[in-house]
Amino acid sequence: MRQFAVIGLGRFGRSIVSTLREMGYDVLAIDSNEDRVKTVVDIATHTVQADATDEETLKELGIRNFDVVIVAIGQDIKSSILVTLLVKEMGVPFVVAKALSDLHGKVLDRVGADRVVFPERDMAVRVARNLESSKVLDYIELSPNYNIVEVEAKPDYFGQTLAKLKLRLKYQISVMAIKRENGEIIVGPGGETVIQEKDIIVALGTKEKLRNLE
Known about the structure:
Blueprint: E1 3-7, H1 11-22, E2 26-31, H2 34-38, E3 46-49, H3 55-60, E4 68-71, H4 77-89, E5 94-98, H5 102-110, E6 115-117, H6 119-132, E7 136-141, E8 146-152, H7 162-165, H8 167-171, E9 174-179, E10 185-187, E11 200-206, H9 207-213
Parallel strand pairs: 1-2, 1-4, 2-3, 4-5, 5-6
Antiparallel strand pairs: 7-8, 8-11, 9-10, 9-11
């Protein structure tokens, strides 16, 4: 099982710790602030109050032995960049770093981050997109051109198969999954899949085509 370490226990960091633990992974949570460490002491597998900008401290924690390190440091951009650089140079295979701006993200990418995330900006975009259409339940931007949306099935879809609806032909989108009201998820549904009332369609496509679907 992969080992995770989360450095920085603000709202984003705490959410990552909580989610990973719910998924069954072991998580080391690190922050220099004692109060923040206390907020996850009952959640994380291990917690440490430490200054992650200190290279010797990271070595003592055995950070190089973790498969994934999430650098979730908040407003201290300098520390965010330094910690990302240190853990990558120590040989951590995959480093995820939180960025506050495009410039911050570019620097994190330059110093070795394998993935840069913009949680505040991404959440704002998702909320705005959800408000734009009452049918959109969730929205994920994969790239500047391609997105994934969860959209409620239209009433005129009920009782019809995907083959008959021809969503791929009509909208040039791919239906990745169907979520049922009872919690069932049909991954990669075939043409024979019948759309039921209250189904949620998970679709991949360009922004323009997905807007047509919505």
